[in-house]
C-alpha cells in the first residue's frame, strides 16, 4: 500500500519560515520524481517545485530564491524549505510521487498571516 504523508504545515507570519516533509512508503522512493503542489481556495492546483530521481530541481517563478526542495532517499522523504513566506503562499500543500504511476499525499495546510 502506497502512502505519502505530509507534515510541517501551520500558521506563520509573513516573512517567516516553514519546512514541509513528505514521508513515502510502499514505493521504491529513489526512482520517483517528487513534487510539491499547492492549491489555494478557488484556484487550480499548481506545481511549486519538483526534484527528479537524479536530484535535478525546478521551481515556479514566484518561489525561486525562497523555497528549496530536497530529498533524502535513505529516509524516503522529500522536503520543502519555505523562507520569506508571503500571504499569497497560503494554500494546501500536496506531495506527489511520479514514475510509471503517480501518487498523492493528503495535503497539509500552510497559512501565512499576521
How would you sum up this structure, described in words?
The structure is a single chain. With 114 residues, the protein is mainly β. Helices cover 0% and strands 53% of the residues. It has no helices and eleven strands. The protein has strands spanning 3-7, 10-12, 18-25, 33-39, 46-51, 57-59, 67-72, 77-82, 91-98, 102-104, 108-112. Strands 2, 4, 5, 6, 9, 10 and 11 form a seven-stranded mixed β-sheet that branches. It has a four-stranded antiparallel β-sheet with strand order 1-3-8-7, with no helix packed on it. A hairpin with a 5-residue loop joins β5 (46-51) and β6. The N and C termini lie far apart (40 Å). The relative contact order is 0.32. The model has no long low-confidence stretch (mean pLDDT 97).
Quick description:
This protein is mainly β and 114 residues long. The protein has strands at 3-7, 10-12, 18-25, 33-39, 46-51, 57-59, 67-72, 77-82, 91-98, 102-104, 108-112. The N and C termini lie far apart (40 Å).
For the biggest sheet, the summary is: 7 strands, mixed
- What is the string of helix and strand elements? EEEEEEEEEEE
* Fraction in beta strands: over 45%
Low-confidence stretches: none
The beta-strand count equals 11
Structural class: mainly beta
What spatial form do the alpha-carbon principal axes imply? globular
What number is the mean pLDDT? 97
Terminal Cα span: 40 Å
The count of helical stretches stands at 0
Q: Roughly how much helix do the residues carry, as a percent range?
A: under 10%
Amino acid at each position: 500500500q502506497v502512502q505519502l504523508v505530509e507534515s510541517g504545515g501551520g500558521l506563520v507570519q509573513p516573512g517567516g519560515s516553514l519546512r514541509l516533509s513528505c514521508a513515502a512508503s510502499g514505493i521504491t522512493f529513489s526512482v520517483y520524481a517528487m513534487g510539491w503542489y499547492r492549491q489555494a481556495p478557488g484556484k487550480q492546483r499548481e506545481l511549486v517545485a519538483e526534484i527528479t530521481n537524479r536530484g535535478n530541481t525546478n521551481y515556479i517563478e514566484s518561489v525561486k530564491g525562497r523555497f528549496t526542495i530536497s530529498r533524502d532517499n535513505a529516509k524516503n522523504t522529500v522536503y520543502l524549505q519555505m523562507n520569506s513566506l508571503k500571504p499569497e503562499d497560503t494554500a494546501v500543500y500536496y506531495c506527489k510521487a511520479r514514475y510509471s504511476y503517480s501518487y498523492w499525499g493528503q495535503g497539509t495546510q500552510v497559512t501565512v498571516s499576521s
